[in-house]
TrEMBL record:
GO terms for cellular component: cytoplasm. The active site is at E450. InterPro entries: Dipeptidyl-peptase3, Peptidase_M49. Its EC number is 3.4.14.4. The lineage of its organism: Eukaryota, Metazoa, Spiralia, Lophotrochozoa, Mollusca. It is an enzyme of class 3 (hydrolase). PANTHER family: DIPEPTIDYL PEPTIDASE 3, DIPEPTIDYL PEPTIDASE III-RELATED. Zn(2+) binds at H449, H454, E507. Belongs to the peptidase M49 family. Its cofactor is Zn(2+). This is Dipeptidyl peptidase 3.
Length: 725
């Protein structure tokens, strides 16, 4: 029996507004115009996420866009209530619509489980029929209605093959197809970041289409790669069965053209040469489908130190690709918060002092620390399926290892989005301290996680000329005390080698760095914490991590044995390590809550953090880094799978505790964001109320392109034949 409550957004779901008014007012007219056009490029590109999520997501978006563009929310509500829809049912309808828009599809951005409406289907249909545009949307609803409400086993969560739904691959693809495609793309030096894979057959042979995202739809060379477009005969090593690969461009072409159009307009208002060159390369990349051109743009982005308006755009994070290598489209525009950025700048200044505190040999650290920009930003625009609290980019290993990266902490996201109305699973004293220090401690964790977590560690590489980027004679694996015999090849990346394991494993490594280095008095002093306040920050940071490991059970699916969220899997692993350390460091007890229902209490002994917790996390972190550095997938996977295992074989019986966690879970906040609107040669900033209706209205007013619905429909119809399940 399916528990429907796990797939709806409850009536208690809240919307937060990401306020950037003060920061935006401080910009010059040139900076406002630059922000406007990159915001527009980001929003248009963000619609790509609909086509990277599920077959029905574009149709659901089109339904709501037509519905709310055709009639104000208040008018629709009055018409629906006149037909017997209750106020509560209409609010559930609005929450569902807001959820689709803020998640860029009908699967949760944080958790990958399906979202279905929290009202009966017949009431949903009454609302649609009450609308002024009922006749216009009737056919659209008929196309998508079955899948909107379906909780068929394969449709409950994102996944590959029989394990779930994805549109990164056609519905007839499985894990074997993903591996074959990766082998082909590695052989041709094609990055998977901006691709999707579609399988068919011709003359008894499997035919795979690797489709590149680009505004151009026809052939020619792929800049930085060469003559790869077209048809290729290929025989995979593992299967030995010949197949055909067709490399094409033009995926999401109409949307990519709108991205290019707006980035081209933004170029005129760039603040310096690095920004102009960055935008030129992005424009080239989104036009041709070339990831090498995007990498070149990222190099100029890294060189653009300390901009007032910070941006990034492209196919970035691979969390939602079931194979872990394809990037979801993302674009953001944000304004620097100078006060908080000063603390992060000092953290960068102290990085070379803090890095040696990490628990791995010096040979496993980068030869030279590449001092990055690290700024705190107030988000003006964040387009994609979800908004993080911090980012370390670019994700290209070769650039991060040898040229550098940037870190950003998204200040207004952290302050607005991470408040909790009720703190579950802690006693009253801990809950009060947690509420008081959650955000300050999280700022410390984000800083350490992004800069010294994602920014640390070396990959050992064998170059094509036979040389190595480490001393083969002196460097050994500390876990075996043996010399390094296996490592990355020159064209291999962390993502392609560790595949679907890579995202969560790396988040776990960065989270461990955060809680390990927050024990440093020097690190805490940078953020203004000394003496008792420092002890409290350490305690709340470790308590927060342990509690997050418990909350993570919401994101585990027992039926498939799959984790649906990379960060939460990572936090569960860390909780397992804390429990394994013993000596009462962490205890988890089943209790009865004030409401008479089953509850859980988690306790952390702050006196044991240094003597018990630190060595346990240090040993685990060292292994995470060693296996990553040498590319030892087998050892890394074996260890990570062990700590990821949710079972009832021994205390605290996590599988049984999961039902209590689900019963007491709280919905994540959705974000309403500003729009920027061009008024002559000036930019107007529009704000919206923090409600589902306000969030919906912001989307109605977001896109000036009058043909957008037609473009989205054409793209949706074009790919329907590939998604037949």
């Amino acid at each position: 029996m399916v528990d429907v409550s796990q797939y709806v957004l409850p009536a208690t779901s809240k919307v937060a507004f990401l306020d950037c008014q003060t920061a935006f007012k401080g910009l010059t007219d040139q900076e406002k115009l630059y922000s406007h056009y990159i915001s527009q490029a980001s929003w248009y590109g963000g619609l790509v996420c609909l086509y990277q999520t599920s077959p029905e997501s574009p149709g659901i978006y089109l339904l709501f866009h037509k519905l709310f563009k055709g009639q104000k929310v208040e008018e629709l509500q009055a018409a629906a209530e006149a037909q017997g829809v209750t106020k509560e049912e209409f609010e559930a309808f609005l929450i569902y619509a807001a959820g689709i828009l803020s998640n860029s599809g009908n699967y949760k951005a944080f958790g990958d489980s399906k979202i279905i409406p929290n009202l009966p289907k017949e009431k949903f249909e009454i609302i649609l029929k009450s609308s002024k545009v009922a006749s216009e949307i009737q056919g659209l609803w008929q196309e998508i209605s079955e899948r909107v409400y379906s909780l068929a086993e394969r449709q409950r969560e994102l996944g590959l093959g029989e394990k779930g739904t994805t549109t990164y691959f056609s519905s007839n693809c499985n894990l074997e197809d993903a591996k074959v495609a990766q082998e082909f793309m590695s052989a041709k030096d094609i990055s998977p970041y901006n691709t999707r894979l579609f399988k068919s057959s011709e003359n008894g042979k499997k035919v795979y289409e690797v489709r590149l995202a680009s505004a151009l739809t026809t052939g020619g060379d792929l800049p930085g790669v060469g003559s790869v477009l077209g048809s290729h005969e290929f025989t995979p090593k593992e299967t030995g069965t010949p197949c055909v690969f067709k490399v094409t461009r033009g995926d999401y072409s109409d949307l990519m053209a709108l991205v290019v159009e707006n980035l081209t307009k933004a170029e005129k208002y760039a603040a310096n040469e690095n920004e102009k060159k960055m935008l030129t390369e992005y424009i080239n990349s989104f036009t041709t489908g070339s990831i090498p051109q995007h990498k070149q743009g990222s190099r100029y982005w890294i060189k653009n130190k300390g901009p007032i308006v910070e941006t990034y755009i492209g196919f970035i994070e691979s969390y939602r690709d079931p194979f872990g290598v394809r990037g979801e489209f993302e674009g953001f525009v944000a304004v620097v918060n100078k006060e908080m950025s000063a603390k992060f700048t000092e953290l960068v200044n102290q990085a070379e002092h803090l890095l040696p505190l990490l628990p791995w040999p010096a040979a496993y650290e980068k030869d030279k620390f590449l001092r990055p920009d690290f700024t705190s930003l107030d988000v003006l625009t964040f387009a994609g399926s979800g908004i993080p609290a911090g980012i370390n980019i670019p994700n290209y290993d070769d650039i991060r290892q040898d040229e550098g990266f940037k870190n950003v902490s998204l200040g207004n996201v952290l302050i607005t989005g991470y408040k909790e109305d009720k703190v579950n699973f802690l006693d009253t004293k801990d809950a009060e301290l947690f509420q008081k220090l959650k955000i300050p401690s999280f700022e410390v964790q984000v800083g350490l996680h992004e800069l010294l977590g994602h920014g640390s560690g070396k990959l050992f590489i064998k170059n094509e000329n036979g040389t190595y980027n480490f001393d083969q004679e002196s460097v050994v694996n500390p876990e075996t005390n043996q010399k390094i015999t296996e490592c990355y090849r020159e064209n291999e990346t962390w993502d392609t080698r560790f595949s679907s394991l890579s995202s969560s494993y790396e988040e776990c490594r960065a989270e461990c760095v955060g809680i390990y280095l927050c024990l440093s008095t020097d690190a805490l002093r940078i953020f203004g914490f000394t003496d008792q306040s420092a002890d409290d920050i350490i305690y709340v940071n470790w308590l927060s991590m342990a509690r997050a490991g418990l909350l993570a059970l919401e994101f585990y699916t027992p039926e498939t044995g799959a984790w649906r969220q990379a960060h939460m899997q990572a936090r569960f692993c860390i909780l397992r390590v804390m429990l394994e350390a013993g000596h009462g460091l962490v205890t988890i007890t089943k209790t009865t809550g004030d409401d008479g229902k089953e509850d859980i209490q988690l306790k952390l002994d702050r006196s044991k953090i240094i003597d018990v917790g630190k060595p346990a996390i240090g040993n685990f972190l060292r292994k995470l880094q060693i296996y990553k550095s040498i590319g030892d997938v087998e050892s890394g996977k074996k260890m990570y799978d062990f700590y990821s295992d949710v079972h009832d074989r021994d205390e605290p019986h996590f599988l049984s505790l999961r039902s209590i966690v689900l019963e007491r879970k709280q919905p994540r906040r959705m974000f309403a964001q500003h729009n920027t609107v061009l008024q002559g040669d000036k930019v107007e900033l529009r704000s919206y109320e923090a409600s589902p209706a306000g969030l919906i209205q912001s989307w109605v007013e977001r896109f000036p392109d009058g043909d957008l619905d037609d473009k989205l429909t054409r793209l949706w119809q074009k790919e329907k034949p590939y998604f037949t399940d």
